[in-house]
């Protein structure tokens, strides 16, 4: 089934095709949303798509467990999805992107939690977050403190670790959890 998310800026239309878990995840109004699923289930893609739904003139952060994943999966996916002209500039050294609707995006690695400091953001995405440390999660959440504050996480399950106990088994009241299967992804 195809869906066209109501992008924050109507000048940039994005037509996306997603399975039910992805669509539900995109439409979630929860302060924290989680999309967990198997390898290739479209989690990172769905997480990146949510960026386009964030209000204009906001600052967001996208973090993953390593710099390589941030650069080669998260940013590359964003670049592939973005409509022509949407990315105004991208500083590869600072991993900072400015978008046509005034959004700014910081791309960060969670492998050194002490590096997740020095900014205040409106929204954020954590990719492969069950593999991040709980310290990285706490620092990440602490940075999302402007405006209405929204964060979402995409992840492949990683056993009964801190993420499972804290987010999946006993989700906070402001959290909505979605599950996807590898078989849900019709593009595989």
Summarize the structure.
With 188 residues, this protein is an alpha/beta fold. Helices cover 26% and strands 26% of the residues.
Shape field:
globular
Order of adjacent strands in the largest pleated sheet: 5-6-7-4-8-9-3-10
Biggest pleated sheet:
8 strands, mixed
Helix content: 25-40%
Radius of gyration equals 15 Å
Number of helices: 5
Number of strands: 10
Assign the structural class, choosing from mainly alpha, mainly beta, alpha/beta, alpha+beta, or little secondary structure: alpha/beta
Low-confidence stretches: 1-6
What's the rounded overall pLDDT mean?
86
Beta-strand level of the residues, as a percent range? 25-35%
SSE ordering: EEHEHEHEEEEHEHE
Give the CA-CA distance, first to last residue: 15 Å
What does this structure look like?
With 188 residues, the chain is an alpha/beta fold. Helices cover 26% and strands 26% of the residues. The chain has five helices and ten strands, in the order ββαβαβαββββαβαβ. It has helices at 20-27, 43-51, 67-81, 134-143, 162-168, and strands at 2-3, 16-17, 32-37, 59-64, 87-91, 96-99, 104-109, 123-127, 150-155, 175-180. An eight-stranded mixed β-sheet has the order 5-6-7-4-8-9-3-10, sandwiched between helices. Strands 1-2 form a two-stranded antiparallel sheet. β5 and β6 (96-99) form a beta hairpin. α1 runs parallel beside α2 (43-51) and α2 crosses α3. The two termini are 15 Å apart.
